[in-house]
TrEMBL record:
InterPro entries: STEEP1_dom, UPF0235. This is STEEP1 domain-containing protein. It holds the Pfam family STEEP1. PANTHER family: OS07G0295200 PROTEIN. It comes from the Eukaryota. It comes from Ensete ventricosum. Residues 20-125 form the STEEP1 domain.
Amino acid sequence: MPKRTTHTYSSEDAAPDGPNSDLFVYYCKHCSSHVLITDTQLQKMPKRKTDKAHVLDKTKHLARLNVKEAGKVLLKRGEGKLEKQFRMSCSGCELFVCYRSEETLEHATFIYIVDGALSSVAAETNPQASF
């Protein structure tokens, strides 16, 4: 008779390279939906002086987004200066979480993450989740 073995896995085992992974997952602070996976911590990213948004350089860091397009906005920044923002919102609650200056996400070098929009911890209960 062949030997039988039992294997037990936990959610910590499911993360790439275990709990000490080099990937960081960020969630919407409002609804806890998954929004961003990157290989750098949000706190280590530089911040813009104008709106304190975190700047994610896609040429240096991985950026996997789970967002919806939220339209284009023109902002007046000082005298004679205009800034185009192509906004992106959380796919769960449609809260504005990040933007870019290029029209297409593929051509955008930088992703600007709104200060205070994301959290590294998902809430215990997600009211938007459907089971």
